[in-house]
């Protein structure tokens, strides 16, 4: 019973934290050297942000040394608030929507 209560409490806390984070301007970074896959990923992210109507900054990071700081060896990569969520492939628009919800 105690495990259930703790798990439920943690779920509520996580839900509230996510709501608070949405109130803060989200920062999405497209990590890549400007290749066609990186450009396509940037377009997909812009569409997903527009579809959700969220307040987000979308930044392209093309400097290799900066990309390496994210440990994103394979590009394109997508980072949300500094945390790499997708790397080495072009995500679908629905995947980005689900990620940003």
UniProtKB/TrEMBL annotation:
Stored PANTHER family: THIOREDOXIN
Organism of this sequence: Dichelobacter nodosus (strain VCS1703A)
Annotated ranges, domain Thioredoxin-like fold: 26-101
A UniProt-annotated Pfam family: Thioredoxin_3
Lineage, highest ranks first: Bacteria, Pseudomonadati, Pseudomonadota, Gammaproteobacteria, Cardiobacteriales
Record-linked InterPro entries: Thioredoxin-like_fold (IPR012336), Thioredoxin-like_sf (IPR036249), THIRX-like_proc (IPR005243)
Protein name: Redox-active disulfide protein family
Gene3D superfamilies per UniProt: Glutaredoxin
SUPFAM superfamilies in UniProt: Thioredoxin-like (SSF52833)
